[in-house]
Amino acid sequence: MNVTIYIAQKEHYKFAQEICDTMEASALLRGTGIAKRSPEYIQKKMENNDAIIALENGKFAGFCYIESWEHGQFVANSGLIVHPDFRHLGLAKKIKKKVFEYSQEKYPGAKIFGITTGLAVMKINSDLGYKPVPFSELTTDPTFWAGCKGCTNYDILERKEFKMCLCTGMLYDPENKKTEEVKFNKKVLTRLKQIKQTFLKK
After folding, report:
1. What does the pLDDT profile of the chain (202 residues) look like in tens digits?
2. In a designed cystine with 51, which of 8, 17, 71, 76 is the match (CB 3.0 to 4.6 A)?
3. What residues contact 188, with CB distance under 8 A and at least 6 apart?
């Protein structure tokens, strides 16, 4: 795998539609909800230097973008996707590490968070120092939660008054980076995910 990871620029606009299509296909394959993004939204992230893209000899391999909330106090690394041809090679972890480090450079002192249903992403986040948290510890900016409207599970989020959903909230707080490490336990999180799906879909 000869993949190079870049801070996305205007020259990468041509990949926007493929990125959106790959995100949607991945969500359908996993049977999970995902907040849909338009090619125009992806291009805007590239224009503002708020995205990471991975390429191999000009071919799209992976992507992730940054969103900031509450005047940069909270930052989300969202839309992590790897093209099917490059999966199971450790690329997702490399992209996530790159966007995590870049987020700290661009938004020093910000709390970095994400919401996900994927155990693989939870594992990567845990390795980077994130910890599972209730939604109350994430941004209260309504614009962030409005971004979930494209997700098939948005009705659950609304019914639970934006306090919980099928996604798990994870947070990296630079002020607490020296606290005790939270060990990732796949079996426990899998079980909790199953309980949450059963409870929230009622």
Report:
1. 799 999 999 999 999 999 999 998 887 776 655 667 899 999 999 999 999 999 999 999 999 999 999 988 999 998 899 999 999 999 999 999 999 999 999 999 999 998 888 788 888 999 999 999 999 999 988 888 888 887 778 888 899 888 888 889 999 999 886 444 555 566 666 666 665 566 555 5
2. 8
3. none
Q: Of 193, 202, 195, 186, which Cα lies nearest the Cα of 169?
A: 193
What's CA 162's distance to the chain center, in Å? 18
Structure tokens at 99: 């966007």
- Looking from the CA of 178 toward its CB, the CA atoms found within 13 Å total 1
50 three-state secondary structure: coil
